[in-house]
Amino acid sequence: MKRSLTLLLSGLLIAALFAVMQLLFIVREGEVAVVTHLGRPVRSITEAGLYRRWPWPVQRIYRYDHRLRTLQGSFEEALTADGKNILLALYAGWRIAEPIHFLERVGTVEQAEASLDGLLRTYKNAAVGQYRFSQFVNTDASALRGEELEQKVLEQARDQALERYGVELRVVGIRRLGLPEAITQSVFERMRAERQALADGYRSEGEGEAIRIRAGADSERDQLLARAEADARRSRAEGEAEAAEQFKVFEKSPELALFLRKLDALEETLESKSTVVLSADTQPFDLLRGGTNALPSP
Description:
By secondary structure, this protein is of the alpha+beta class. It is 53% helix and 20% strand. It has helices at 2-23, 99-105, 109-128, 146-165, 181-252, 254-269, and strands spanning 24-27, 31-37, 40-45, 49-52, 59-65, 69-72, 76-79, 85-96, 167-178. Helix 3 (109-128) packs across helix 4 (146-165). It is rod-shaped. It starts with a helix and ends in a 29-residue tail after the last helix.
């Protein structure tokens, strides 16, 4: 008897919980909900809490995450104002702003992201066409216009996203930037040509500097040689003048001059311990015979 009563009470409790679940529902923090009545949206709920409802199939509850979502845009080619192709992908931060409109127009998050991707692609291609290639790829950071393009796409796509899909676009940015293979090759060729021109300029400057240095060295060498030649001529002149004075002395005593010349010849000949076999009468070895005859008369 007690067991049957327990089962009965349990069944009634389960039925009561089921009835409560059919008549009440919870919206959690960070969620929005749309209530449909016989398939037609009748109200949206954006605040967390407990709400009443008619049981299914009279009313149905559609819940969506109300937090900010991130969309990764397609990576594809776009044409710049000067006819160059670049590869560009955007990202976007978005959230559901009008739940009823969102349910009627797209229904699911996946469909909303696909629709937003197409919308961003359209405005991205239009915006890229307003800038030159050098405003996307440049070594000078001040010439780049990436942030300007992001703001322009955001301003143009924001109203359309809200009107078409009930979605609020909060931020748009460049996720990835690339170059097609043909453009990459031409960029490398231009960079190689620029580096070659720079190297040629440095080489030309080096050759000019080398010529200047060689010219300076040659001029300095010529000056040194000229000074050395002048010094040599001066020394020779001084030597000749001194010799002339000595010759005047020798003219007064020729025998002394001859004697000194013989001594010099003997010194040069016998300098290396040489052995010489000659007659004692051969000059200048006649000085070796000694005696007073070897000395010049005073």
